[in-house]
Design a protein that fits this description.
Blueprint: H1 2-19, E1 26-30, E2 35-36, E3 39-40, H2 47-55, E4 60-67, E5 73-75, H3 92-96, H4 109-116, E6 123-128, H5 135-149, E7 156-160, H6 163-172, E8 177-182, H7 191-197, E9 201-205, H8 206-210, H9 214-221, E10 225-229, H10 234-242, E11 247-250, H11 253-257
Amino acid sequence: MKKFFAIFSVVILALSSCCKQSSEVKILAHRGNASTGSEFTTDENTLDALRRAQELNFAGVEFDVHLTADNQLVIRHDNKITDELSCQGSTFEEIRAHRLPFGNQIPTLREWLEQAKKTPHIYQLLEIKSHKGEREKELITKSLEIIRELDMLDQMYMLSFKTETLDEVLRQEPNMKVIYNSSNLHHSLKPEEVKERGYNAISYNINVILNHTEWIEQFRQYGIETFLWMVNTPYTYNIAKELGFTWATTDFYDAITK
């Protein structure tokens, strides 16, 4: 472990002089702002977590969307809710009756966006969760319908771990900003590949980017935004600043900014 941190420190020191652009890194609230200090104090991916992020004026908020068994769009990270209940396998009525640990309901996409629209300067990042067959394409279509209806295209990004999903988003809505997400060290897209596909941004796990630090400047030259996750300590927040990332994705805003 000591050897790792020694090597890591050398990498950061070497890069800080050539890669650091600004100490200003936009903060992205991961699944809303559900924490106080270093503890969770409300349910993530809920309207309560969104409102808290709005109150603190985050630059952006990330959230996750599923399509229920009866074709309703709901906000939650995991498909599984309980042993008997799931986002994609249960009806909206069944899901709505459930209460999360802090007492919140699982919200709909429309409810989320109607609340988000009250702070148009705060970007909303919709992660498309994996679905079987044509269901994922249907989720994209229905999500875009609501976004267009609420006239929120300029406030939105869509993100996915799958290139075929992002390609489908751009097929249906060429003006949507899309983010390629990756935690895979050996299969993350290179800067030239991201540019060729027409993606606006990447969101890479810290282990990916520390093995490809030369990509950061290349992304910047191509005009591609960079998101680093997860940034849950002052130490990793400093990495995001030193390496010149556009965004830092966090669960614990208080912990990284104190």
